[in-house]
């Protein structure tokens, strides 16, 4: 589609203001267009129509928890009493907001079985950074500055090693066994006086619950390390098992996954961190506190051992408000039903897809809220790759599952239906997948050429990177 | 139960397919000793009750005319911005990993990148980072990589907002990167350059804010030239409305800056009590390999049709893992969408009109306040939309008192641990009008009068 | 099946080495390596003058979906770099043993003998 810059109407030049030296001013015109309101409205409305979204399509994108984003949460979060609030407003003029944030802090602490939480991290990766930074601060406080290495299971989310490196750690990978659980002997070999801790997702990126978690925690703690929980898959166990009870010392929650705040085409997210009592002093600031005058923002003055500030202000407040509304609406029982139906949908879908001929990567295991299929057999018999299958799905108005992640499983799909999809939607997905499997056997060229019915066909990503035309 | 469609029959059939007889049995691989039955949070409530409760909470924040800034500003947002950005197709989509199904988001991100390069004059902009301060921290890490980590120090001016500096301390501190402070002349609010170059270990880069902490416009050419002469990379900190009026960073000094960052919140993003916002980061073309964050490129499909996709993903954490340029994997997608629509809706002319009006109001308010006996200016230099003023009473007290008049008077500099008791940083935007300024000045005049009466 | 010329020697990190005589050796990535990487979009080899160490990273390769370190199969000093390949990364896909060479190292001849011959590399790449 044409760029917005093509929609331009001339406007008269503006005289520069007096009192500012010419050497500090822009010379010449500002190179932005002047479209009419209707032109802008049409342009971006049309662009929006070129997107797949949860509101318009089934979106079983593994590890991303693409569930319904309740509109009441949006409506309430953007009320003018919240949206027009400048962060420098004195606490006494933002008590309603602070009360909501304080409650959210309390609820998330309770849900995770931790001792305290800080709402400030802007996204999951920033939560991870805060988590490993707190663990670093904890060891240093104990005078233990030789702990320079973090352990991460093979195949973990790429953010884990990247965040550990951002906090100055080296990273070692721990392999997993054939059923998806961690290789405990390899863990023992890796543990030592230089290990600061381990970062784990549970259920893991393979979609299966780490059954030996209590033992893993015991061994890591015995070696002087701490455990970090990557909350990416919390939707699978919400209200069933608490990371604090599993033995974790620090964690983040992706509110844009588990608590139904919108993904917005890649943000904004929120990566709230929660920790055990031992790590509480190090939580990032500001935190929401409560004193004789009501609720307030607590800063480094209140928490001198904090790892500090991660962003300009108190976090993704408008996202936090949506999560607050979601939890308030569902309550304790509703949240337990979230994980129950997320697991039911995943396990049902897995069984039905197996019946349609697809191979589970871990057939002997119960799925968490998502599961891994391997299309290696299809590739060997027909030449059709996982990528071809997911591109063909788009033709049927279904968003692709996550593809080629986790990297441990060849030609894999990671499928996460979420609890808000109906059985009818899942059945249709199975029927489409069965049809695609037949196409792969009979007319594979249909798959190689897919998608056929979208605004564009497969794009030349190599050309994009080589030419690097990134602004117009 | 909210948002879960299954009726009891459907649930039963699906459980039978899985071979189980209860929902709880789905969790049979979790050791029983770890499982919990009780959550210590309240029961759920209806949408009606929730709305009532939250409307009450929202109403506890009084409607204030906003004279506070400090990097984030209450500019006018045209109605159509969130009308479109709030559409489900933008609101409930994910990161555009499947480009054929995400052309809307991708082209919008591409247009955002284009707008930022047009505002700053730089070659390349990423698709945004968490906020201005994190963009600056990432720019510093990028500069260190460009210098191949030879110089693990950054020159940080005292004119940088303290909450931005605090973020640098957190993030750069984790990698033991030294922040070398460049002092400010408190009389002018401008930086003081060392007369004999740098005597400490040479830093990788110098941060150059276009507007200092007291609102005074910096002589960016002189600062950039000096940094060029010292062989430092230059990182500009700028603000989008100011860029509609002021010299773009590509023109600073002789060679322009290497990286330009800023807080793009003023472009259509509500203040929302502190976030979420979005930072931008733009750079020269030859630095692109070290750029953090998402980047969208134009390409063609199999039939030669133009389209857009994410590019240079090999820099990013999901491929390069521990060796990625950053751990960040979000752009602020929805806010980028709003910012792009906002720039389109205002157009160059609307953006400049708002910038000119913000500037006019700030200059007028500054002079109204300085006319009040006992009120002093702190720094004499030219300003854009924000200035510091010294009141004869504590700024926190005045801020508190002006709330009664429906005015958020500004940011007491003591909140930042800076300046004197009476110092306040005051900002104006086009959302205000002349009457608001007069009421602000009148309220100050009256409180000072009371103070004097009480004193006498 | 990928090509493995017999006149070259190979490393287990999928680089090829060509003996140019006088202790000079030209280096690139194998046909098998470029197949694994897919469409190469970026090549960063070591600059002339740099000392490289056998088995250690000395550059970067990026494709659309993958990133990989470039390893040096030999220890020695870099005396030449393919200046054109940076602007034409697709040459690594199109002509990995020809136009897609990456750099030349100067070192002793004995190092050559420790590299894999084509039969040994075929066994490695075929696995």
Strand order of the largest sheet of chain B: 2-10-9-8-7-3-4
Question: By helix and strand content of chain B, what is the structural category?
Answer: alpha/beta
Report the order of strands and helices of chain A. HHHHEHEHEHEHEHEHEEEHEEHHEEHHH
Q: Work out the helicity level of chain B.
A: 25-40%
H and E order of chain B: HHEHHHEHEHEEEEHEHEEEEHHEEHEEEH
Radius of gyration of chain B: 26 Å
How many helices of chain A? The count is: 16
Specify the overall morphology of chain B.
globular
In total, how many domains does the architecture of chain A comprise? 3
Provide the CATH top-level class of the largest domain in chain A. Alpha Beta
The CATH superfamily of the largest domain in chain B turns out to be Type I PLP-dependent aspartate aminotransferase-like (Major domain)
User: Which CATH top level class of the largest domain in chain B fits?
Assistant: Alpha Beta
Approximate helicity band of chain A: 25-40%
How many strands in all of chain B? 17
Proportion of strand residues of chain A = 5-15%
Runs of chain A in which pLDDT lies below 50 for 5 or more consecutive residues are none
Detailed description of the structure:
The complex is a heterotrimer of chains A (472), B (456) and C (127). Chain A has 472 residues and is an alpha/beta fold. Chain A has three domains: 4-48, no CATH class; 72-330, Aspartate Aminotransferase, domain 2 (3-Layer(aba) Sandwich); 336-448, Aspartate Aminotransferase, domain 1. Chain A has 16 helices and 13 strands. The two termini of chain A are 13 Å apart. The model of chain A has no long low-confidence stretch (mean pLDDT 96). In chain B, helix 3 (79-85) runs antiparallel to helix 11 (333-370) and helix 11 crosses helix 13 (434-455). Helix content of chain B is 37%, strand content 14%. Chain B has helices at 8-18, 47-59, 79-85, 88-91, 103-120, 132-146, 162-173, 220-229, 240-243, 317-320, 333-370, 395-403, 434-455, and strands at 65-66, 124-125, 153-157, 178-182, 184-185, 190-191, 205-209, 233-238, 259-263, 279-283, 296-300, 306-310, 376-377, 386-390, 407-408, 411-412, 423-427. Chain B has 13 helices and 17 strands. Chain B has a seven-stranded mixed sheet, sandwiched between helices. Chain B has a four-stranded antiparallel sheet with strand order 13-14-17-16, with helices on one face. In chain B, strand 3, helix 7 and strand 4 form a beta-alpha-beta unit. Chain B has 456 residues and is α/β, with parallel strands linked by helices. Chain B has three domains: 8-59, no CATH class; 65-73 and 347-455, Aspartate Aminotransferase, domain 1; 79-341, 3-Layer(aba) Sandwich (Aspartate Aminotransferase, domain 2). In chain C, strand 2 and strand 3 (24-29) form a beta hairpin. Chain C has a six-stranded antiparallel sheet. A three-stranded antiparallel sheet of chain C has the order 4-6-7. In chain C, 19% of the residues lie in helices and 35% in strands. Chains in contact: A-B, A-C, B-C.
